[in-house]
Design goal:
GO molecular function: GTPase activator activity
Protein name: ELMO domain-containing protein
InterPro entries: ELMO_dom, ELMO_domain-containing
Oligomer: single chain
Helix content: 55-70%
Number of helices: 15
Radius of gyration: 28 Å
Largest sheet: none
Order of helices and strands: HHHHHHHHHHHHHHH
Low-confidence stretches: 44-51, 247-255, 349-359
Structural class: mainly alpha
Number of strands: 0
Strand content: under 5%
Mean pLDDT: 78
Length: 359
Amino acid sequence: MPHFMALVYFLMPAIFLSMTLGMRVLTQFLLFLYCKCLWRGLKFVFRKVTGRCELQRICYNNKPGARRTLKIEYMPNDRNVIFFTLLHQLLQNALSVHPDAVEKTIDDIMALKKINPDTNPQLAISLQASLFQIVGYRNLVLEVEKLRREPYDCENPNHEEMLMKLWKTLRPDSVLTGRISKQWCEIGFQGSDPKTDFRGMGLLGLHNLLYFAEHDKAAALQVLHDSLQPKHRNMSKEEASMSKAEWEKQKFDKAIGYSFAIVGINITDLAYSLLASGALKTHLYNVAPEMPSLMHFQQTFCYLMQDFHRFWIEEDPCDIMEFNRVRNKFHKRILKQLKNPDMALCPHFTASDLHLVNL
């Protein structure tokens, strides 16, 4: 008997591992069975009961914007192979796509799904809007990436003109003494030549800063003004009893403002990461009725700059060394907001030159 118990004890890990593997195989088999057999049966029943295919149900049962477009974009390709192929062909030519190509894709999809366009006119309209958003987003990613990869060139007159415009807009009453000057620090650059600060985000950083300064000038000037101000912390009883020398030594009264231009370039990086990862689809699909454009991205940047400024004040950091902590926390908060399919970060943004959709 002791030998039998010892054998059972010795074999227990192997038995447990076998049971675990068996359950995993069974789970995968049931999932395969559901995807290949049961789901197709359910789809057949749904279509017979409702008289609509999956694409029709998505278009008719979801309001315009991210709820509808995301479901169309991520329709399972294993169950809609031909639909996915048509969409992929359309996206391959995102930069040169013509409205006629979108219409042809819609005609092919409706023929594939055996949908009569005469009795379902709204379906074509809804599908067209969503496909324009999908293609536009892909196009926007490529356009933004191109700007990000283009380095600032001080020999390029267009680049220099944009930089001078930025100075004149943010410092209208101050004459710049020279192209290379410590005055650039007044608007938040690190040194006497701003071009060195654009290395990370290329021309994209300059485009965004100039757009903010020109299209929402009052807000940009206010954020710049606040960023230059020192913040005096409320003193505790222990701090109040300190001598002036002790106070200066502890640096309790130092400024916790930040460099406007550098933070703008950093927020540009944050906006770019949201765009490239696809997290920004929720927002852009909700504010751009058709194709999201560079203007939509720049408006989003302006919103993020103002929202980060408010967040920075709320966080009340001890000094600028806490910037990365605050930025990461802010990034996580934005990501959480964008998980809501009805989220529009700035549906009524003042810098907008378009009629944005407030869902």
